[in-house]
Amino acid sequence: MCYAIPGNVKSISDNLITIDYFGEERTARNDFYALQVGDYVYAQGGFVVQKIGKKLAEEILDSWKELFFELKETDTRLSKLHHDKTTISKGFLKIISKATYGGSISREEAVRLLLSEDLDELEVLHKSANFIRQKFLGNACCVHGIVEFSNNCMCQCAYCGINRSNINLTRYRLTPKQIRDIVGNAVERFGFKGIVLQSGEDPSYSSKEILNLIKMIMEHYPVFLFLSVGEREDAFYLRAFEAGARAVLFRFETSDDALYAKLHPHSSLKERMRYLKLLKNIGYLIATGSLIGLPQQNVETIIDDFLLAKELGADMYSFGPFIPHPGTPLSGYKAPDVGSILKALSVLRLIDPYGKILVTTALESLYPKAKRQALLCGANSVMLNLTPTNFAALYDIYPSRARGDISLEDQVTEAQLLLRSIGRAPTDLGL
Ligand code: 5AD
After folding, report:
1. How far apart are CA 85 and CA 17, in angstroms?
2. Ligand 1: does its nearest atom lie under 6 Å from the Cβ of 383?
3. CATH code of residue 44
């Protein structure tokens, strides 16, 4: 749960607390604060990230009072499941109906949905995904800010423009001071409560330096901290958790063993799995997923990717289109079309009614309006780019990356307007 609306602590049981939001109760873990019943807190990603004073909390809540219910009403209206399509096959509707009641759909059923090319079926699929998101998760939408702090990378991922063989790319590495300023600005000026630190696998940024960075951020800013720094020593991830990081964005990229090996000469799917299990065991929230539209993928392998992410206990799903980069071995391939990604995200929502589904920047890069469309197809999480625009342009994982050239102020305004227009509580932006 991650409303950036302060909530009131109703009860405390060890480190689990119940928080009230205008009569709705949510549970969050409290690892960092001494709390009493009656205190006001912000929670993010299911964790208490900040304790705030009563007077300030009541002022903020006052400003949210009407909007909170207005947003809910809008969302409920937009996620109604009605259709008058009489031509849709009974088999298709049976699968949809099972999912809307919270039943789990089989691999074959998911494949059947993903194979559909029928416009009426697709409309029902999209609406059902939105209905399921609203029914099981309500109208909360996570808004995290991502800082891409280094584009140095020692990996050789065949699809990625910052892979180490791309000698045409100017490399950069933000200093801890620069990162601190970026995070400080996002938190203090824009009210972000969730921050993702992302980089290539950059050995020039030592694990010790990243740990110091985490400690510095946790000491100064009340945020839910995500790491996306790839494969590092196991001990690093243990220490980073101790230092306060609580989530990782760590994709397995494809669940197809042979394809993984082909695309990643430096690593193996087995090792990737080992990391994901280790990270889950340490206690991190897991955001994982794969690329959609890679050469040699098919409908079955995409469903297998979804099922693997679910099996790994993903708290957040990160599935986005592969976009060919001219400086990589996969430059000659084509990106998938937007419709196929929206369809895939809808099927994913039917596979897991409870996980968060991220709208990736890659999807937005294919088609800017896809962000809204994806949020109406089961997705409920977005990321804004905090990287200064001159560096964001060099974080060139794929070409024409959306967001990279838009100021943070404009991104925030745009996100607020979008989320309000579709009735989502704009988490992280709720100062
Ligand atoms: N197209 C889309 N996504 C890409 N990534 C890397 N290269 C590309 C590309 N060409 C994604 C990877 C990685 C994330 C940081 O960026 O899936 O996990």
Report:
1. 45
2. no
3. 2.30.30.140
For the cut 60, the answer to whether the pLDDT of residue 1 exceeds it is no
Same domain, 226 and 341: yes
Residue 37: pLDDT above 90?
yes
Ligand 1 close to Cβ of residue 291 (< 6 A): yes
pLDDT at 431 over 50: no
Task: Give 197: exposed, middle or buried? Use CB within 10 Å, 0-12, 13-18, 19+.
Answer: buried
Are 425 and 414 spatial neighbours (Cβ–Cβ below 8 Å)?
no
Burial class (CB in 10 A: 0-12, 13-18, 19+), 310: middle
Longest dimension (CA), the chain: 61
**Two tokens, residue 273:** 């799995």
Helix (H), strand (E) at residue 9: strand 7-13
Total structural domains within the chain: 2
HEC readout, 235-252 = HHHHHHHHHCCCEEECCC
Residue 299 sits at the vertex; the CA angle it makes with 157 and 277, to the nearest 5 degrees, is 55
What range defines the domain where residue 398 resides?
136-421
Q: Which residue among 159, 162, 199 is best mutated to probe the pocket of ligand 1, counting the most ligand atoms within 8 A of its Cβ?
A: 159
Name the average pLDDT for the chain.
94
Name the residue with tokens 């995070």: 183
76, 96, 114 - which closes a domain = 76
Q: Is 50 exceeded by the pLDDT of residue 177? A: yes
Tell me the CA–centroid distance for residue 106 and ligand 1, in Å. 28
What is the CB-side half-sphere exposure of residue 183 using CA atoms within 13 A?
29
pLDDT tens digits, one per residue of 287-341: 999 999 999 999 999 999 999 999 999 999 999 999 999 999 999 999 999 999 9
| pLDDT score recorded for residue 430 | 43
CB count in 10 Å sphere of residue 69: 12
Name the amino acid, one letter, at 236: F
Q: Separation of 150 CA from ligand 1 center, angstroms?
A: 15
> pTM score, two decimals?
0.96
Residue 142 · residue 356 · CB < 8 Å: yes
